[in-house]
Amino acid sequence: MFRFAHPDFLYLLFILPALVAFCVYAVIARKKAIKKYGNPTLLAELMPEASTKRRHLKFWLLFGAITLVIFIIAGPQFGSKLETVKRQGVEIMVCLDVSNSMLAEDVSPNRLDKAKQMLSRLTDGFTNDKVGLIVFAGDAFTQLPITSDYISAKMFLSSINPSMVSTQGTAIGSAINLAARSFTPDDTTDKAIILITDGENHEDDAVGAAKAAAEKSIHVNIVGMGDPKGSPIPIQGSNNYMKDKDGNVVITKLNEQMGQEIAAAGNGMYVRADHTNSALKALQKEIEKMNKTELDSKVYSEYDEQFQIFAWIALFLLIADFMTLDRKNRIFKKVKLFSFLLFLCVGTVSAQKAERKNVREGNKLYESEKYTESEIAYRKSLEVNPRSTEGIYNLGNSLYKQGKFPEAAEQYQLIAGQGEKMVATPEGKARLSEVYHNMGNIFMQNKDYGKAVEMYKQSLRLNPKDDETRYNLALAQKLLSDQQNQDQSQEQQNDDKQENKDQKDDQQQQQQQPQDDQKQNKTQEQQQPNEQMSKDNAQQMLDAFLQDEKDTQEKVKKAQMQQQQRRKTEKEW
Q1: Which CATH code for domain 85-299?
Q2: What was the pLDDT predicted at 464?
Q3: Least crowded by CB within 10 Å, which of 62, 216, 416, 556?
Q4: How far apart are CA 300 and CA 428, in angstroms?
Q5: What is the DSSP track for 291-313?
């Protein structure tokens, strides 16, 4: 496929009609000047060496050279296309326990941070594999759908904390079932679940879930986090430890027996994580044993520069024009002009060559995962041509891979500003779609789920078949909904507190009312000693008051029970 790297320079072609008009004007002016001296036919015999054809030839040689120089500046490219490359890999779903018990510090720095460090190093060893991430406590949900974007995986991994799951506990079975449903439908690819937990399962049938996964040829590997002797759970932001409902300090222990049973049922292995890297090495060996199958992945090949042939033709035309002489040797007056054009052509070609050299060097470093060095190369290319769309795009990707998300977002914003021009070609459209996808990931990192949803939608408008973007969009929408529900829940709790306070005030007022009535009756008796209240009437009033008091107390208890049910959790660790 043919394209221009810098199509804006093609506007210089509008100079060509002006050159033709100037040439026509010059010819007419020359003829008028000759007529002033006499009959042109007679004067032609006095100028036998003058040649009109040579002058026309020189003009068209110059015209062609200028046209080719404009094409050279625009950067003609040919040979790029979308192609599908087969890669060998496996599919792995990671299930990470984020319950409060994972904050225990029997493994340094604590169970959760140790698990995140291990997963980060495990992800660094992936090349062509696909990985997904599920977090669970009393419930489980997908944090990252299965993908080959390891940068996104590490980005989501770094933001994990126990507050992500409102329902505490350790529902291992739910996590395994969700992971088994999260793989691609490809039956030929080896699949594995890596479940990292302390094994305190109280909610469901984890062994049964592992057996069901094994029946689908999915291996369930368990990594036990913690110490079987147990450790207290620190409360973040304080020096206290978590206590149960009886006021006793909670001691969370690694349940190795359950971990081994789940691994055996899932045809996987069990390994205990300690202060060494033995668990990480065991996982890496287990993954290497899996049969790697072909996974499809779309990549974009690089465009080949085709300006060389235009440069050679332009140089040939300029040399031909230089060597085309006339009698009066007026060519010497034009040598400076032609030399300037030749210098301009060579200078432009040299600048583009330097730009492409830096871009290619950056691409090689990028493919070798040397992202810092590739950033330097791309910045050098932008020094030559700051408006290079390819340079800006590649620099943004390099910054993204390094985790420099604010800087990457700035480059992506520059690309998004050229959206109307990029959507004109399929390659530009695909590139812009990837830009919006990465911007969505950056907003997800910043927990700005609203903007992330918008970016993912923009990406899907350009590439509706991108499964990863569609999954990320669903995840962002869920997180946005959870965030809104959490805000609403907080408002509801505040309203409930105010309602309970009002009910207590009403109750106190009602309890105070009989005393006020008694004082009022006493006062009335003093003022009207002759008016007596019968004993039966007094008893009826007392019974009515007691009934109202009973109804009020029942309403208060009912409201408190509803409030407690909303907050009640069977297991807070």
Answers
A1: 3.40.50.410
A2: 84
A3: 216
A4: 11
A5: PPEEEEEEEEPPPEE-HHHHHHH
